[in-house]
Amino acid sequence: MNIEIFADRESLGAHAGAQGAAWIKDAIQEKGEANIILATGQSQFETLDTLIKDPDIDWTKVRMFHLDEYIGMPITHKASFRKYLTERFLDKVGVVKEVVLINGEEDAKIECERLAKIIKGHPIDVGFVGIGENGHLAFNDPPADYDVEDPYIVVDLDLQCRLQQMGEGWFNSIDEVPLQAISMSIKQIMKSKKIICAVPDERKAQAVKNCMSQGVSKNYPASILQNHEHCFCYLDKGSASLL
């Protein structure tokens, strides 16, 4: 894992998005298409904005997956990650090769099986991820399951994770935050050939310290990124303040 620290989240996002864009273009040049994973949430705003502004990415050659979605969440809800990606990515880049969205309104087991069949046939070139306040990677809260082979799994969301979602303004109260989600598994994320991990803001400082300055531990799920040879982690002064 490579770590870079920037003055603010705008600079962080500019560099993370630019590196991700370069890797996407490399994949397209090498094999005619690119398979990517996009992360969501407030921490990804600047990275995603930089990525979609690159005029040289041929999005018609890009297949998009994403990390997670709440179970039972309609796409019309402001917290829906399908809604987030539609408004912040798909509506802005136009036609893409394929969009593989997680539908949390369907039977969760059947949906996980559907997604698994698709992603197994399309190895990920570039994965964009973040780190939660509890150290989670996607919605793999601590203690994370590092061993499950399934590409997508049903997970329970812990209290700290749910409080973060409320604190970011996606929900009005903790009672509104779902208890479960469909998440990409740790093993599937780690299969990405290259990973961009963008983590701004001081509220993530303890999680960053736990996940980057100590050994790999299921209690700090994103610490597994230390084992990925081509993971670039981008921090700002706030998120890096305890390192």
- For the record, give the distance between the C-alpha atoms at the N and C termini, rounded to a whole number: 15 Å
Let me know the number of strands.
10
How much of the sequence is in beta strands? 15-25%
Content-based structural category: alpha/beta
| Major sheet attributes | 7 strands, parallel
Order of helices and strands: EHEHEEHEHEEHEHEHE
When the domains are counted, the total is 1
Q: Figure out the total of helices.
A: 7
Shape: globular
Helical content class: 25-40%
Note poorly predicted spans.
none
Q: What would you say the CATH architecture is? A: 3-Layer(aba) Sandwich
The CATH class assignment is: Alpha Beta
Q: Taking Cα atoms only, what radius of gyration do you get, to the nearest Å?
A: 16 Å
Mean pLDDT: 97
Side-by-side strand order of the widest sheet: 1-10-9-6-2-3-5
CATH topology grouping: Rossmann fold
Properties at a glance:
243 residues, 7-stranded parallel β-sheet, 7 helices, Rossmann fold, alpha/beta, globular, 3-stranded antiparallel β-sheet
Please, could you describe this protein's structure?
The model has no long low-confidence stretch (mean pLDDT 97). The two termini are 15 Å apart. By secondary structure, this protein is of the alpha/beta class. The protein has helices spanning 9-31, 45-52, 81-93, 108-120, 159-167, 186-190, 205-212, and strands at 2-6, 34-38, 62-66, 68-70, 98-100, 126-129, 152-156, 180-184, 194-199, 231-236. The protein is globular. The chain is built from 7 helices and 10 strands. A 7-stranded parallel beta sheet has the order 1-10-9-6-2-3-5, sandwiched between helices. Strands 4-8-7 form a 3-stranded antiparallel beta sheet. It has one domain (2-236): Rossmann fold.
